[in-house]
Amino acid sequence: MTSDVKAAEARPSLKAILASDLPASLVVFLVALPLCMGIALASGAPIMAGLIAGVVGGLVVGFLGGVPLLVSGPAAGLAVMVFGFIQQLGFAVTCAAVAAAGLVQVALGGLKVARSALAISPAVIHGMLAGIGILIVLGQVHIVLGGSPQSNAWNNIRELPGQILNLHGAATLLGLMTLGILIAWGFLPNGRLKKVPGPLVAVLGGTVVAAVMNADVARVQLAADALSAIKLPSLPEGSMWGAFAVAVFSLALVASAESLLSAVATDKLHTGPRANLDRELLAQGVANTVSGLLGGLPITGVIVRSAANINAGAKTRWSAIMHAVWMLAFITLLGSLAAYVPLTVLAGLLVHVGLKLVNLAHIRELRHRGELPVYLITVAGVVGINLLAGIGLGLGAAILRLLWQLGQVRVEIHADKGVHQVCISGALTFVGVPKLSTALAKIPSGAKVEVDVAVNTLDHSGFEALESWADTHRKTGGSVRMEPLEDVWTRRSARAALATGPAASSPSSPVHHVSTLSPGGVQ
User: Fold this and answer.
1) What average pLDDT is seen over the chain?
2) Hey, CA dihedral for 421, 425, 429, 435, is it positive or negative?
3) How many CB atoms lie within 10 A of CB 436?
4) Looking at 66-70, 195-199, 473-477, 497-501, which range is the least confident one?
5) What are the start-end ranges of the E strands in 344-487?
6) pLDDT over threshold 50, residue 256
7) How do beta strands 409-416 and 300-302 pair?
């Protein structure tokens, strides 16, 4: 990034802000407001906690963040986790865990390890989000139908038939209407009407219909005085410290991963200043600490709001900052209007959000790349056990898949006129050494052997196993014709240089399908 670009991003003109960022901030505000309230509902937290997180995320990350067009606030991806912690620790202690998780993020940002979080398999991340989406749908559909969510996924599934047979009139109608509007909005052709945020239309529509019907349904409850709604955090007592530590590091890990992935995705949506991930992680940590201290939900960068921000024409970080200002103004001046919003309408919004977290495009891509089993294992773990177990199972499955791939060496041996021709292909690593040794052991002593090394991955263990066998075979009277493996390593360096610079190897050099790394490495 040039110094001129940096200066333009840091000091935008007032005219540019009014022309692009002001209108975009209003769009983001209208998208974020119902989502902040809905995510608080799904988290089992006070509605104000979601609004506080929205304000803090916009202001703190807006000013300090390393991704100017990223919009931060409470995210559906953390709702299920927060719900569990509130049930286990209570809301005040959960807020303390949010604040402490922010400090962990600040430390990670200071250590400049942000990019290492991107090493987590996308199949695990998408599986985690899909599992969370399923849990949100299973819980919130009970509210849409006029009932109450159960304690876990299995109970929600078991109670669903009874809930369907015992609908609650107006509440069910409003929830289903909200969900119907959101689904229909996605099929509208691009035009002026499509530019109006679907969540705003659905929530306003449901609220107006509830008012006209004079429906007797549960509604949002906000304190008349915004300051009085702030709940200070408290530290755990007695045996709760272990669960508190788990909450802190779990929130820090998942919030960091989601924020950084959203930052990378946001970079792909525009051509402006590129992301500074370490600065972004530090800013997210500061925001979470402030949010936790003020009684707010955990904060992450959110790709849906960020995409709305960019599509609305935002050019600088001032759009995200101003959207938080509008939200703060709503809380302090117009908060009483929220009392007209039925909870079943917010639940309909959340069901739609949950459904979108199960992304069919991601499933097709992962199936094409052979990573669908990792995705499904993660989803099953998140839904069937809990979020942390799902992530752990997904990471374990990803590692096992990697080991399985590293062991996919193919050894083909053909005897032709007294010469044993050996073709070694695939990945020759420490995992595949036993298979290689078993195949080579079948070659009789004293035989003439020609070896073609056509692997796409070769580590030090494979290197040594092949060299050792060739040495032993020659000592027992046989002959081995094989390209020196040292040349394989040398050619790897030459190919790497060719990929990064103008230098090229000699045209007369033979071409082999060989790709190597340092011992234990993976290409």
Assistant:
1) 82
2) negative
3) 21
4) 497-501
5) 409-416, 419-428, 448-458, 479-482
6) yes
7) unpaired
Q: Which domains does the chain have, with CATH numbers?
A: 18-397 (no CATH), 409-495 (3.30.750.24)
> Across-strand partners of 425?
410, 454
End-to-end CA distance of the chain, in Å? Answer: 30
CB burial readout 370-401, b (16+ within 10 A) else e:
ebbebbbbbbbbbbeebbbebbebbbebbeeb
Taking phi over 0 as left and psi of -120 to 50 as alpha, with beta for the rest, 216 belongs to beta
Length of the chain: 523
Prediction pTM value: 0.74
State the Cα–Cα distance between residues 259 and 71, nearest whole angstrom. Answer: 10
- Percent helix, strand, coil in the chain, to 5, is 65, 10, 25
Radius of gyration for the alpha carbons in the chain, expressed in angstroms and rounded: 28
300-302 and 71-73 strand pairing: antiparallel
Segment 320-347 shows an average pLDDT of 87
- Taking each helix axis as running N to C, give the angle between helix 169-185 and helix 198-213, from 0 to 180 degrees, rounded to the nearest 10: 150
The span from the CA of 269 to the CA of 245, in Å, is 36
Residue 416 φ then ψ, to 5°: -140, 110
Under DSSP, the state recorded for 457 is: E
- Give the three-state DSSP class for 490: helix
CA separation for the pair 123, 395 (Å, rounded): 9
**SS3 per-residue string spanning 116-170:** HHHHCCHHHHHHHHHHHHHHHHHHHHHHHCCCCCCCCHHHHHHHHHHHHHCCCHH
Asked if the model's pLDDT at residue 454 lies above 60, the reply is yes
351-408, pLDDT tens digit by residue?
Answer: 888 888 888 888 998 888 888 999 999 999 988 887 778 888 998 998 888 888 777 8
Helix (H, G, I), strand (E, B) or coil at 74: coil
Tally of CB atoms within 10 A around 113: 14
User: What are the helix and strand counts (H, E) for the chain?
Assistant: 22, 6
pLDDT at 225: 65
> Is a pLDDT exceeding 80 seen at residue 3?
no
Measure the CA–CA gap between 355 and 375, rounded to whole angstroms: 16
Do the beta carbons of residue 507 and residue 513 sit within 8 Å? no
